[in-house]
Amino acid sequence: MNLFDSLAVSGSALSAERQRSEIIAANMANAETTHTEAGGPFHRREVVFHSTVSSNFQLALHHEGVQGAPPHGSVHISEVVDDTTPPVMKYEPGHPDANKDGYVAYPAINPVMEMVDLMASVRAYQLNASAVTATKQMIQQTIEILKS
Amino acid sequence: MTTPTPLLSMLESYLKLTTAREQAISANMANVDTPGYHTHDINFAGELQNAMRKISNVGNGSESVPLIPASREVHGLLERPDGNNVSLDREGLLMAETQLQYALGIQLIRRQFHQIISAINGGSQS
Question: Is the ipTM of this complex over 0.90?
């Protein structure tokens, strides 16, 4: 339980939010991708956040200097899941990926939705960055004690 | 850790509690988008009273007082449909408050040490 643990917690959130932004960017970039290595159109992906919540007992252990687990409240991405929404079928008979009826499967990605998600991610990143600044100031003030 | 005056022990516990709260707020802010997460906090006033009582029982304050603040869930906050109840306004305000409290503790500790220096120098300018 010290200020550097706070930094670690905020840092874990920063990296989780950055990964989320990357996934959203990939979704937006592939909004029109009809052909992937796995076959079929691109599937929209989403991140699942998971927090490390320790019990008071674990907190006490940590306080006594037993290290190992990430500090209480850290965030990590537990998995990246595929959106199972069926693809949008568009009638484009000349397209190389068209099926026998002339329909092409496009990924079900709404750029507006992705944009809003990206904005939320950026705001959360800013929030945690300001928490890092606050913690840094507190550490700086502690060092000030040493100055006469 | 041994400290020369009881007031310094008290300020030490005050800073420890402020740090614990800062970490609780950081954790809440980090989990602003985690589904099912509930806001955690420590009972600042209660823990501080506890620590003060322990320090006055120890007497001259020469012994260190172990202090492990228990974290607990905060009730009465609006919960979003994904089960998360972190309120950004609450966390932002608390973080500003905690920073000021910490700065106050630091200034008081510096003041204490300056007093000791002043006593060593017999009241003359150090």
Answer: no
What tens digit of pLDDT does each residue of A45-73 get? Answer: 999 999 887 666 776 676 666 666 678 88
Contact A131 B30 (CB under 8 A): yes
B123 against B93, higher pLDDT: B93
Which residues in chain A show pLDDT less than 50? Answer: none
CB B62 within 8 A of CB B20: no
Burial class (CB in 10 A: 0-12, 13-18, 19+), B68: middle
A73 neighbourhood in chain B, CB within 8 Å:
23-24, 26-28, 30-31, 40
A127 contacts in chain B (CB < 8 Å) = 29, 32, 88
The domain limits of chain A are 3-31+45-82+109-146
Does the beta-carbon distance from B29 to A127 stay under 8 Å?
yes
Give the A:B interface size as CB pairs under 8 Å: 106
End-to-end Cα, chain A, rounded Å: 27
